[in-house]
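Batch job 17 of 40 flagged for manual review because the log was empty.
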Amino acid sequence: MMFNRIKPFIPATAFFGGFIWDSLTIGRVVSSSDLLLLSVYFILSLGLILLLAKIKQINVAETPDERASAPFISKFCDDRWVVRFTWVIQFCFGNLFSALVICYFKSSGSTASLLFVLLLVGFLVGNEFFQKFYSRFGFNIALFCLLGTMFLNFAVPHLVHRLGAFWFLLSTILSLLLCYGIWYFSRQSRRVLIVPGIISVFLATAYFLNWIAPVPLVLKQQEACVQFSSKTYECLIEKPSFWVRRGISLPSLHWDPVQKNEVYFVSSVFAPSKVQADLEHRWFYKNPATGVFEERDRISSSRMRVRGGREEGFRIYTKKRSLAPGKWRVETALKGGAVIGKKDFNVIEGVADENNWQVWKLK
């Protein structure tokens, strides 16, 4: 039958359907309604994994009394219902996965999140084509552990209004405890807990290596400029060329070594309402001899503590008076933590034409 031919591909289709749906519906900034919807997906997937585990217990029961122990659930022990529940779990995973990847990518200053997505998508497709090597329950609980940690790490700051290592570790432990509860309820082999344990250790290690983006912070704007006003948040930048506007060439700033005019770096970072976090700017200079970016300054202060709720983002700035000509990079980052965004620009020694400047405003 045609159905039997396409049946192996339905879970992956449901997963990708959830991914595409969230990619189209999640906005630039996650709202309270979005967070509530993700919570529904998370709870629904948890409930369905427990339900499938109970169905399996009933189906392998050796006595009629054991099979009759849950009369309501027994109505759903038919293979058709099991397949339907599996589709819904995969769809919930797809929605959670896509939304969280979008959010983590927005908060990341690197392409690591995208590579992580490709790795997990490959793992899902491999699970569907090499099903004999995996236990579906084991796969679901492992992926639930991964998504649970990512989701709780994103959701907890909305609840406690803080970010940091303690809250990430708490999210990881809570996710692992949920997996332990699923295992305890399912009465399956302890081996299914090995992969969730490995995932938890990997994510904790990745966090302390600053591989995990500092969600839910999102970089809104950033620029290198001169003559910055902290009252109007306006400054001067050199008019971008055709190639700079298209991201092919780097923007440039002229710096006068005689007057030693100050070069500013300004950025704005969005955080949800009431969320607070300490930020910093890291100034790097590309050594012409080695071609490697070397950190020259790491600047933070009390006025760089982001206070969430402003739609355009919380505005911060730092400045340097002494710069060497060449390529510079400034990172906007969580203090002592992961990078939210970065910008490269060229510093040219000398005085620029007055007509080559334009006013730029940090919103």
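Reviewer: the log was empty due to a logging misconfiguration, but the result itself is present. The chain has two domains: 2-208, 218-361. Unflagging and moving on to job 18.
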